[in-house]
Each structure stands twice: as structure tokens, then as C-alpha cells.
Specification:
single chain, 572 residues, alpha+beta, Heat Shock Protein 90, 3 domains, 4-stranded antiparallel β-sheet, 14 strands, 56% helix, protein histidine kinase activity, transferase
Length: 572
């Protein structure tokens, strides 16, 4: 009808005769429209929707929601007349934009039996519960897949799977948009029709590509272009080219075939976990096919199975991918755990071997310690034998000079004997505590010359340990310098005082000092005795790479500066 003749509403009437049993089963009136409408049964107004107006802008339209169908009782008379006064404003204008949805912009009417009435009463609750399950599951999977993508940026399959889950989530929300918003006949097709089907089409079109990239089957990477089919399907809303039911069925079956081929290749490559993705991907396609057949009135299933089909339609593939990835990481974790267990076992074996080796080395070390102590003890005994032989030989010599020479030699042997005695008595076989060593050395020398009462020796130094290679030359040097002081610094029975010290100046720099308050001597005076002791001191000073300084202006003071020597570096 031309707009010029349209008064703002039209009438639709039908007269029918129904079996009394059929009329008895009718409980509700089912009506669906996006425009204003009034429904009359046998001339009586039984329901109204919105408000009529000749002006489209002023007309109050009706927004279908999830409320239950309206109660209706039909009398038992034989013939009934059902009349509908309806507005076609929205139907006419929106038909030009949404051709595919034009049938929903007029009206749909019917009578509800008990089954249909029960369905309408729980339509909101069932739809909300269905959407809640879908949204919760998809949101959790979306977050998990996003985390995987951000964690492994180079893994493109994680991005594709994230996009699929996001598209499915958008489609589910748009399909149930009337749960949250009051839309009209123009905005509802945009959300529940165009955006819904386009978002789901994009996600569904990416299924084969996500599988080919996940299993790295490059010859099927071309499947990413299937997303254009979703754009073509959306375009068909505005420019009708093909039948929706036939197009959807063809695409769904083609995608199933592609996914089966990709799965078989993945399984042949011994990727057994591909079965999880197989069930998810083909499951989504299968439940989508059932959904399309229900919408096309090709099949009919119970309300419960319809909602189950709707839930599985959205979550099957993302859930299958999640199970696949979880299983992959589970296997990786088990493999890593097995590797850790194997490495731990190997480490325990190594530790046992090391403990055994340590015990063997400790036993060998203990044996070596005992052996070294025995060696030092025998060296000390042998040196005492040599000292005793020198003493016996000295007793048979009448020449006083020769007696002094023999006594000096005996003291030198004793200085080394004392050192070896300290070594085998100490826990440290490589180091000598120098203060105690010097004390014993001085006592031995004073006793050998019977000067313990007349000469006092003061040792001023802290406890200090030096290695054997340094201690032996220092002991011989102290022996020579102390002997010289006893023999030449205090003539005519005078009392005297000798000071001995060893200091660590800094790091490895040391200073040995021996001074007396005796008569001293002139620097250019001829050495008394044989001069062997002086030569020995100079030789030993060079051996420890030291520098000797002598001051005889007030008694005699000898300073020897040297560095701590590393074991085995001294010249013999």
C-alpha cells in the first residue's frame, strides 16, 4: 500500500474452527512484534502492545522481552475469529535496510499449549542461565588464552585462538542483548542479528587456520581467508544473493571436512593431543549445524536440549583448545619433573661419590698429617742427635775458639730442631706461631751460654703465624744475631738487655728487629771471630728477599724488612 493511503495501521483476520480437545489444551497467547498492535478474539480485545499513531515518530512501539506468554481461554463454540490491528511503519522502513529480518518486523502469532507456556515462563531464567554459563566459561578461557599470547608473543596460534574466543563471547552477548537492553525494531537486528552473526562467523571462519597454525601445517595456512565468508554473509542481509540456510550448511560442512583433514595430519604426526581439539572444533561445527536447522524449522528438539546445544555451540572449541594446551603443559611439566627427578638421582649419586671421595681424602689427609708429624718428629730427633754429637765433639776440643764454633753450630741445629718440634706438636703443619718459637729459641740460646741471669731478652710482638719456608731462615737469623749480642755486646760480665720483635707492617710486609744496649761497634771495624755468622745473616736475608739495616750508634740494632714468601718460592 502506498504511504499516501496508509492510515497508520492495518487489519489481519482469520476465522477458524478447532477441535474441542485442541481448544481445551490452549493456555496462552503467543505474540511477537516490534510495532504497536491490538489482538481481538471473537470481537473482544484480549491483548494490546504499544500505542498507534499515524505519525511514525509519535508511535509507541513494542519491544519483545523475555516475559511469559499472556493467558488466554477460548470458549467451546465451534467457530472463532482472530483479528489483529497492527502498525507496519517499522516493517516498511526497515525492510529496505534489513531484508533478511523483515519477517520479524511485522508480527508472529500463535496459541500456546502447556509445553509452550511452561517454556515461556522460564524463558528469561533459562536464557540468562545459558548466557551466564557461556560468558563465564568464555571469559575465563579468553583471559587464559590472552595470558598465553602475552607470555609467548611469537606463538601466533595463541593470538588466533584468543580472537576466536573473543568473537564467540561477543556473539553470545549480542544474541541475548534483550536481557539487558530495551531495543526497537531497528537496533535489535544490528546487535542480535548483524553483529551477532558476523562476530560468530569471523570466529568460526578462523577455526581451520587456528588448527593449521597450532599444528604448524603450512599448506593449510590459506584457510585464514575464510573469514571473508563472514563478511559476505553479512552483506547478504542488505543485498540478497543466496539462501542463508543453504549457505550456512555448505560452509559448516566444508569447515568440518577441512578440520578433519587437518586433524588426521596432526594425528599422523603423532600429535595425539589433537583429539581434544578435534572434539572441540567439530563439536562447535556440529552444534552450529543443529542450531541453524532448528532456526530453519527443519528439526525440532526439546527446550532443555536446545539450551544445551546453545552452550556447547559457543564453548566446545575454546574448551577443547584449553584442554589441549593444558595437556601439553601437563606433559611438559611431567617431562620436566622426570628430568628433575633424573637429575636429582644423578646428583645424589654424584654426592655419594663426592662424600666417598671426601672420606677417602680425609682418611688420606689424616694419614698424611700423622706421617708429616712423624717426619717432623724424626727430623727433630735427628737434629738433636746431631746437636748431641756436636756437644760430644766440643767436649774433646781444648781450643776455646773451636769450642765457640762448635757451640754456635750446635745452637743453629737446635734452632731448627725447636722449629720441627713446634710443627709436630701443632695442629698446623705448614705454619709456625713465631712468638712462642722465638721464646723457646731465646731460652735455649741463653741456657747454652749460661747467660739467663745476666742477660734479659724481651720479646714484644703479637701472636703471628708464618709459613715454614719463612720461619726457618728467620730462626737462623735470630739465632746468629742473639748469639753475637751474647758474645760481643756485653764484655767484662756486664748485665744487658736484648729486645726482639716481629711486626706485620702492612699486608705482606714484615719487619724483624733485634736490638741490645751493649757497647756496639764501629762500622769500619773488623769483625770479631770468623765472620761466618755475619755472612750467614746476609745470606739468609737475601733468601727471604729482605733488606738489612744496622745501627751501632747506641748499642746494636738490626732491622730486616721482608715480604711474606709463598710456600716453595725461597731459594735453597
Amino acid at each position: 500500500m502506498p504511504d499516501s493511503l496508509w492510515s497508520g495501521f492495518g487489519w489481519w483476520r482469520i476465522t477458524f474452527t478447532a477441535d474441542p480437545k485442541t481448544i481445551e489444551a490452549i493456555e496462552r497467547l503467543y505474540f511477537f512484534s516490534w510495532g504497536a498492535a491490538e489482538i481481538y478474539l471473537d470481537g473482544k480485545l484480549v491483548a494490546s502492545y504499544g500505542n498507534f499513531s499515524p505519525n511514525r515518530q509519535l508511535e509507541q512501539t513494542f519491544t519483545p522481552d523475555y516475559k511469559g506468554d499472556r493467558p488466554l481461554r477460548i470458549s467451546q463454540q465451534g467457530t472463532h475469529t482472530l483479528a489483529i490491528r497492527f502498525s507496519n511503519h517499522h516493517s516498511k522502513s526497515n525492510f529496505k535496510t534489513f531484508r533478511h529480518f523483515s519477517e520479524n518486523l511485522g508480527f508472529d502469532i500463535g496459541f500456546s499449549s502447556k509445553v509452550r507456556a511452561n517454556y515461556s515462563d522460564f524463558r528469561y531464567a533459562n536464557s540468562f542461565a545459558t548466557l551466564s554459563v557461556i560468558v563465564v566459561v568464555l571469559f575465563i578461557l579468553l583471559v587464559l588464552h590472552m595470558l598465553l599470547f602475552f607470555k609467548f608473543r611469537k606463538e601466533e596460534p595463541y593470538l588466533v585462538i584468543t580472537l576466536i574466543t573473543f568473537f564467540f563471547l561477543c556473539a553470545a552477548i549480542c544474541a541475548h542483548i534483550l536481557l539487558f537492553a530495551d531495543l526497537n525494531g531497528f537496533s535489535n537486528p544490528i546487535f542480535s542479528g548483524i553483529i551477532n552473526s558476523t562476530a560468530f562467523g569471523l570466529g568460526f571462519g578462523l577455526l581451520p587456520y587456528s588448527l593449521s597454525s597450532l599444528f604448524r601445517i603450512q599448506k593449510f595456512y590459506w584457510t585464514k581467508h575464510l573469514v571473508w565468508l563472514a563478511i559476505i554473509r553479512t552483506t547478504n542481509y542488505f543485498i540478497p544473493i543466496f539462501n542463508f540456510v543453504l549457505f550456512d550448511a555448505t560452509i559448516i560442512l566444508s569447515v568440518i571436512v577441512l578440520m578433519v583433514i587437518i586433524m588426521r595430519i596432526a594425528i599422523k604426526e603423532k600429535n595425539k593431543e589433537a583429539l581434544y581439539v578435534t572434539f572441540g572444533a567439530i563439536g562447535t561445527s556440529f552444534f552450529l549445524l543443529i542450531n541453524r536447522m532448528i532456526n530453519a524449522d527443519l528439526i525440532s528438539i526439546s527446550t532443555f536440549l536446545y539450551y544445551i546445544d546453545l552452550i556447547l555451540l559457543y564453548i566446545s572449541y575454546p574448551l577443547g583448545i584449553y584442554i589441549y594446551i593444558t595437556n601439553q603443559y601437563g606433559r611438559l611439566f611431567l617431562a620436566m619433573e622426570q628430568t628433575v627427578e633424573d637429575r636429582t638421582h644423578q646428583l645424589n649419586v654424584m654426592i655419594k661419590d663426592l662424600i666417598k671421595t671426601k672420606n677417602e681424602l680425609s682418611q688420606k689427609n689424616s694419614e698424611n698429617v700423622v706421617l708429616l708429624k712423624e717426619i717432623h718428629h724424626r727430623v727433630k730427633n735427628n737434629l738433636e742427635v746431631v746437636s748431641g754429637l756436636l756437644a760430644l765433639q766440643s767436649a774433646k776440643i781444648d781450643d776455646p775458639n773451636m769450642k765457640d764454633v762448635m757451640l754456635a753450630s750446635q745452637n743453629r741445629v737446635q734452632s731448627m730442631g725447636i722449629l720441627h718440634q713446634k710443627l709436630y706438636q701443632s695442629e698446623q703443619l705448614a705454619f709456625i706461631e713465631m712468638k712462642n718459637y722465638f721464646e723457646n729459641l731465646c731460652i735455649n740460646i741463653l741456657d747454652s751460654y749460661n747467660e739467663s741471669e745476666r742477660i734479659k731478652v724481651t720479646i714484644e710482638m703479637n701472636d703471628l703465624e708464618l709459613d715454614v719456608d719463612t720461619a726457618v731462615p728467620l730462626g737462623l737469623i735470630v739465632n746468629e744475631l742473639l748469639t753475637n749480642s751474647l758474645k760481643y755486646a756485653f764484655p767484662k760480665g756486664e748485665n744487658g738487655h736484648i729486645e726482639l720483635s716481629l711486626k706485620n707492617l702492612q699486608e705482606d710486609n714484615f719487619q724483624l728487629k733485634i736490638s741490645d744496649n751493649g757497647i756496639g761497634k764501629k762500622l769500619d771495624s773488623k769483625a770479631k771471630g770468623t765472620g761466618f755468622g755475619t755472612q750467614l745473616v746476609e745470606l739468609l736475608t737475601r733468601q727471604i728477599d729482605g733488606k738489612l739495616i744496622m745501627d751501632v750508634s747506641n748499642g746494636t740494632m738490626v732491622l730486616i724488612n721482608f715480604k711474606k714468601q709463598l710456600a716453595g718460592t725461597l731459594d735453597v
